Amino acid sequence: MGTGRNEIGGRLLITGYLGVVLMLIGGIILLPLAALPAFWDEISMARYFTVPGVVAIFAGYVMYLPIKGREALRLTGHQDALIVVLSWVLAIVFCAVPFMMTGKYDFTQAVFECTSGWSTTGLSVVDVTRCPRIFLLYRSVMLFFGGVGLVLVMVSVLSDRHGMRLYSAEGHSDRLLPNLVKSARMIIAIYMGYILSGTLLYMFFGMGWFDALNHSIAALSTGGFSTKAESIGYYDSFGIELVTIVLMLLGCTNFLAHLYLIRGRFLTFFRYCEVRFQLMICGFFTPVMAVLLLYAGLSGNVGQGFRDGLFQVVTALTTTGFQTVDSFAAFSSPLLLVMTLLMLVGGGTGSTAGGIKQIRVWIALKSLYWSMRSRISRKRTVYSDSIQKLNGKEFLTAQGRLDTLEFIGIYLSVFMLGTMVLCMCGFDIGDSMFEFASALGTVGLSVGITSYDASPVVLWTGTAGMFVGRLEIYVVFVAAVQLGRELKHGVGIRGRRWKKYAR
Prior knowledge:
- By secondary structure, this protein is mainly alpha-helical.
- It is about 65% helix and about 0% strand.
- It has a domain at about 1-105 and about 125-170.
- The chain has helices spanning about 10-30, 45-65, 80-100, 105-120, 135-150, 150-155, 160-170, 180-205, 210-220, 240-250, 255-260, 265-270, 275-295, 300-315, 335-345, 360-375, 400-425, 430-440, 455-470, 475-500, and strands spanning about 5-10, 70, 385-390, 390-395.
């Protein structure tokens, strides 16, 4: 069935969407230039951002021209997943150019840093004590847009028909409002409101405006990039730590839940299974972490132990990566184990956090409970297995539970594979598990394996972990399959044309 002259689909539509994304990426690269009036001594670095930014905008516009003013047909197969994954690849590669233009970072290091930024991880090869402020701000800009998501930003200026499948493919599961565009704009408004509030609170507790802005973005996006080598521990301020904890918890909470919180529907908010599970984990592991820190001599007294324990539990669970202790390399095996488990669990669905996601772990634990209950209860007893979501109880089917357990199994398999690669690079299993759990869960805590001097194998392993961890494994796998189909289809068409020409 043919298409109308004013309709477009297939690979041209994919190219057009990528063109829109590339124009947005160009604008994002240029954003740090707005801060140059405050850092006029760094004006010579403007070219590092101007060149790739302008090139991205021009190339994106050329790619967008074929679909301009034409009606987009429905995406077929898994083209939505392909567009999302290629969009993130373009963002990472183009945003790596300013780092490479400085001459201080090679392609591997630059891609690692930008993958860490866009995935809101926080692992870094940058020495923040010597890094220009415009580049520190640039990293925070990547955290900001990586947190809300490239597609969500694109959807905020497109229609429902253009954006819904892309919105879902990027990992957004809930609409805040019936209209998708309004939902996207509402999410961005909430996000920016929290950042502004966090910045003001940080300044109230003694931070300068530049550090306050960067830390507020990093905390809410659960990214963890800091302007200080000692991270939040540099300030040694309970007020700053408390603001950071609140922002981290907000960042790892489903955006739809924020709407209930803002509207004062606190009962609905706190009945939500992920919020309850999150509080249960923090309540259980904080004293455990406090005892382990005190036993290891990393906290001076009981009060400090609980303060440090709460912060480390929240930073790991929310997959943020800030720290208040000196070095995780000094952690004992039990401490590393607890932190690794928390990083694997991760934050909430529809949030800026990574990890397996709390709702999946909650369903797995509930499924175990339901299974044990069915074994010991009377056979005639009938139970309705459900979890509490924001819009009421959701009854789970056997297939739904199986899908959840399947994802957890695949996630842990990738985790073991990445750990094995790091072990083969000469690191012990405890450190390897911690480091790759941090990369895969987009956390950013490190025992020192990933650094500026790390081998390319280590950095590319971390890059792969951060990428699939941010987009979730299924989307990357499906996109790879769809890319193979698109390439095969293209080769097939060229082959048929060649045969026709030969005849």
